Amino acid sequence: MRVCLTVAYDGTNYHGWQFQPNGITIESVLNQALSDLLGEEITVIGASRTDSGVHSLGNVAVFDTNSKIPAEKISYALNQRIPEDIVIQNSREVAADFHPRHVQSKKTYEYRILNRRFPDPTRRKNTYFYHHALDVQNMQKAAKYFMGEHDFKSFCSVHTTVETTVRTIHKLEVSKEKDVICIRITGSGFLYNMVRIIAGTLILAGSGAILPDEIPQILEKRNRGAAGPTAPAKGLTMIGIEFLEEEGQK
Description:
Blueprint: E1 2-9, H1 26-38, E2 45-46, E3 55-64, H2 71-79, E4 86-94, E5 105-114, E6 128-129, H3 136-144, E7 148-151, E8 166-177, E9 180-187, H4 194-207, H5 215-221, E10 236-243
Parallel strand pairs: 3-10, 5-6
Antiparallel strand pairs: 1-3, 1-4, 2-3, 5-9, 5-10, 7-8, 8-9
Helix pairs in contact: 3-4
């Protein structure tokens, strides 16, 4: 059977999602724990290969197994075998051909900025501390220009290798609660470092380094050097994935 996991994790201590020969990753921890639990070699397929230090509340992974353990029970057993900074939120059986990267979906991320005079040690792992005051209204104005379908070549790593850099942003909101600014973005898919570069560029707009209406020009240039810096990984959390096609859930 093919089992689908919903995985939450604090990415602080991991070298991202994808297996690395010289570092512990979320994928390698899951592969080892599942192989030990089920008594067979397991390799998970993740929906999103989050970077080193990035967190998640709802990444998705699938794997195939011959085990007789009911799919919905695997989450409970697996949580007893993995570190406390990784927690399986759900496990369920899906169709044998369901692949989380090959179906249409909407992914939602949040980038959180702690905008105050001094850092807060209790929020050091999941927010980016920025002590200069940011103009949230300017960030909101800039955010509107990202909406819709655009070529995001200016907003991805120069090392990105994809067939097309065109992506669709369904929603991009900037809000502030007390001293935390939250950038929440939902899209059809994201390029390597795209969310963090958008966040870095919105920070420039909030600081007055660029004007909100400069965003269309930055998009048109299709040049990584035109956009803002890549914001630090620790401020980024994958919120979840909505699959738009039938998962074949049992």
